[in-house]
């Protein structure tokens, strides 16, 4: 099963991005960071748009730099429009979240960077396990439906056989 995380950030905050990416590297999670995930010559807008669409969790590193970035605002807008689960990490103290994500609880990286990144990883793994559990429940439900259909078919066959005697 694939679980995709999209990290939205300002390129001026790459140090924090790399720290989060490293934290998530020892998990079964795929991480999309435009800086590393898009090859030269690839079209940025479509690659980023596709990665947001495919993500299971959208993490935004919100900072003064991100606030000044047109890309970050647009990525947040797209993730919001697609009803993606959004996890904000606030890098600068006393900086409020923008618009549609302003009501979300966030992790304050400024206060405790190491614990905040560990908590972000924990939350990503919780979301991964929810998806995994949902897939397993769906498989179990489909198996139960198959068994029910088989029993109904056998019952119908039995009734037909009795009616032929």
Q: Which keywords apply here?
A:
alpha/beta, Rossmann fold, elongated, 6 helices, five-stranded parallel β-sheet, 13% strand, 165 residues
Detailed description of the structure:
This protein is of the alpha/beta class and 165 residues long. It has a single domain (4-163), classed as Rossmann fold, CATH 3.40.50. The chain has six helices and five strands, in the order βαβααβααββα. The chain has helices at 14-24, 34-37, 44-54, 64-67, 70-81, 113-163, and strands at residues 4-8, 30-32, 57-62, 86-90, 107-108. Helix 1 (14-24) links the parallel strand 1 (4-8) and strand 2 (30-32). Helix 1 packs across helix 6 (113-163).
Strand-helix topology:
Elements: E1 4-8, H1 14-24, E2 30-32, H2 34-37, H3 44-54, E3 57-62, H4 64-67, H5 70-81, E4 86-90, E5 107-108, H6 113-163
């Amino acid at each position: 099963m694939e679980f995709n995380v999209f990290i939205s950030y300002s390129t001026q905050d790459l140090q924090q991005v790399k720290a989060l990416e490293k934290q998530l590297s020892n998990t079964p999670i795929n991480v999309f960071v435009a800086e590393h995930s898009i090859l030269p010559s690839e079209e940025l807008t479509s690659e980023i748009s596709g990665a947001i669409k495919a993500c299971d969790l959208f993490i935004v590193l919100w900072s003064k730099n991100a606030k000044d970035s047109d890309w970050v605002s647009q990525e947040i807008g797209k993730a919001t429009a697609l009803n993606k689960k959004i996890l904000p990490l606030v890098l600068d103290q006393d900086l409020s979240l923008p618009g549609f994500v302003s009501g979300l609880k966030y992790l304050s990286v400024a206060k405790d960077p190491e614990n905040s990144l560990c908590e972000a990883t924990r939350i990503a793994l919780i979301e991964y396990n929810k998806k995994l559990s949902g897939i397993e429940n769906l498989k179990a439900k489909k198996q139960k439906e198959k068994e029910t259909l088989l029993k109904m078919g056998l019952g119908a066959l039995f009734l037909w056989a009795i009616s032929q005697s």
